[in-house]
Amino acid sequence: MADGRREPGALESEIMTVLQHAGEALSTAEVRQRLGGELAYTTVVTILSRMHDKGLLVRTKAGRAFRYAPVSDEPGLAAHRMHQVMNGRPDRDTVLARFVETLSDEDERRVRELLEGR
Amino acid sequence: MMDLDGFLPLVLPAVMACAARPLSGLLPPRTGTWLLTATGVALALASTATLAVLALGGALRLPLIAKLGHLSEHVLHHATETSPALATVAGLALVASLAAAGHAATTHIRALLDGARTARGLPGEGILAVVEDDAADAFALPGRPGRIVVSTGMLAALDPAERDVLLAHEHAHLAGRHHLFRTAAHIAAAVNPLLWPLRGAVTYTTERWADESAAGTDRARAARAIGKAALARNRRPGLSHPSALGIGPALARRGTRPGPLPRRVAALLAPPPPRRGLLVAATVVLVVLSVLSANDGAIDLHQLIEHAQAG
C-alpha cells in the first residue's frame, strides 16, 4: 500500500476485492478510504469508471455521487460468461458436454419424424 | 528380417477408422466408450513405437552412431530394418506426430483448466447454474466441483420430467468423467491422424452413455426430452447453425447420414443395446495384434543391434 505506483490491473483487482467484500455499493470516497486513502481521488474515480465501462461494475446514482458494486452476481455477467464458454475455441467441445448440438435441417426433420412417429 | 506384418501397427488404425462409427452405434455405450478410447490409445502408442523403431533402425547406419555402439556396418547394410529412405520418412512422421500430440495435449489441458475456472465463477452454490438466456442450451462443465449450466430458455422448453432427464444426463457426464475419454481420443487422433474418426465415435458413445444413465425405466421420455431440447435449440440459430453460414442446403441434402442427435433419439426409442461380446472380442484381438506387432519390431531391432555388435 505504501507504494503509490501500482500496476493499473493490480489496482483494479484491489478495488474489485474491496467492493466484493463490502456487501453493499460504495461511493468513490469509501472505496478510496478502504484502499488506505493514499491514492488520489481522481485516480480512484478514473479506475472505477473504467471498470464500469468494461462491464465489471454497476453504478447507481446516490445524491451527487455514484455508488459502485461488482456485477459478479448479476445474471448479465453470468450470461456473458456462459457465452464466453460456449463460443470459445473448438477444442472446448471436448470439455463441454453439451446436452444437444445444433441440428442440420435434415437432422431436424429426422428428429421430428422420430418424435411424431411414436 | 523386417516383414510386412511389421507395418501392421501403421495399417490397423485405418481399419479402426472404418469400424469406429459402426462400433459406436452397436456397442452398449459404456463398453463402447472404454473400448474405443483404449483402442485409440493403444493403436496410437503402437504406431508411434513402430515409427520410432523404423527411424532408429536407419539411424544405426549413421557412421557416428555405428561407431559409438560398436556396430558392424557390414551387418547393418544388409538388414532391411535400416533402410535410410524408410527411416527418414518414419523419423519425419514421428516428429510430426509427437508435435501434434504435444499441441493437442496442451490445448486440451488449457481448455479443461479454463473450464474449471469458469465452473468456479458461475453463479449459485450447488452443482446447477441457471443462466438467464432465451436461447435453449445446457452443458456440463467439468471441474472441482463440476457444474451443470442450463439456460432459462432450455428449462422453458422442457416439462419437469424432461428437465430431470436433462440434469441426469449432464450429471452422468460429470460423474463418469467423460471429458477424460474425449481428451484421450483427441490426443490419440493427433498422434495418428488415421484415428481421427475415433474422436467423433467417443464423443457419441459418451453422449449415449449419459443418455442411457438418464433414461432409467422410461426410455421414451428421455428420447422426447433430447428431441425437444434439440428442436428448441434450433429455434434460435446462432452463428454455429449451418443455415446461418449459408451452407445449410449442402448439409441438409437428403440422403446424408444421420448426425449424432437423431441417432441418439432413435437409440432411446429402441430397446437397450445388447452386450455384443463377439464384437468386443474382435476389437480386442485387433488391438493386441497391433501391440504385439509393434513389440516384434522392437525385438527384431534389438536382435539386429546385438548381431551387429557381435559381427
TrEMBL record, chain A:
SUPFAM superfamilies: Winged helix' DNA-binding domain. Belongs to the BlaI transcriptional regulatory family. Transmembrane segments: none annotated. InterPro entries: BlaI_family, WH-like_DNA-bd_sf, WH_DNA-bd_sf. It comes from Actinomadura darangshiensis. It comes from the Bacteria. One of its GO terms (biological process) is negative regulation of DNA-templated transcription. GO terms for molecular function: DNA binding. This is BlaI/MecI/CopY family transcriptional regulator. It holds the Pfam family Penicillinase_R. Keywords: DNA-binding, Transcription, Transcription regulation. The keyword Oxidoreductase does not apply.
